[in-house]
């Protein structure tokens, strides 16, 4: 069984910052906007190198989305950054009307997603953003798993024509994907090949799925692990082919089980290849204040929860 090793814990928001800085050097049309969270979004290097291409909007997220939409008309590629809670729920009307409806080439870059922003508390956490964004026609939705993948995704979305929601996080997590990877929007990445159960994971749960697969293997259970970094468009072919082989599936995400990856997978399987499915996700609840580790444990968003779900779904085959 292949061993995935972390090169060290790094925050995915820093991967975004590194990608944005590189884009600043490569593409003169890339501009950045921020709602008073430059440090949190790791945008300072881009600003230092391109001060004339940065717009500090202040705590006015709705205005930021309107400005970003307007900038696209002149051929710019705006990267609008703030916390995921403020990048979606607070400005949904502006995104729907000014960006998605008219297909504007805006990149909505959302940090501090899920519960793993921890001590910032429940009011700053969001567990429904993937659902909100995937329901918008024409919106591409990406949820990256580590620093390297976030940097690669940031570079890739600049080449994609159309609105994108890029979701990443605050905590330092294992950095295990290749530094030189080519990020393909809508193309899932198979990490382990297996025959007994499929584990489809996204974001911070991908590393947890890897750990779960290793433990399951020690128990004699062969788990296929697939990194679903793009929630929309979903790689339906990879999902269907895997579940046809294994006969059951576990989805794992740092998001409400309502509206997230799990629901998209369930619809895909219902239409093409019905199979037993278990959901590792929050259960129709808000978060609370605590360390990322405490919250992942409380809400069942870790390797132990994935193992439990895999063992349960196997009994339903």
Automatic annotation (TrEMBL):
Gene3D superfamilies: 3.40.50.920, 3.40.50.970
Spans traversing the lipid bilayer: none
Domain Transketolase-like pyrimidine-binding: 10-175
Record's keyword terms, sorted: Thiamine pyrophosphate
Similarity section: Belongs to the transketolase family.
Entry-linked Pfam families: Transket_pyr (PF02779), Transketolase_C (PF02780)
Cofactor: thiamine diphosphate
InterPro entries reported in the protein's UniProt record: PDH/Transketolase (IPR051157), THDP-binding (IPR029061), Transketo_C/PFOR_II (IPR009014), Transketolase-like_Pyr-bd (IPR005475), Transketolase_C (IPR033248)
Species annotation: Christiangramia fulva
Domain of life: Bacteria
Official protein name in the record: Transketolase
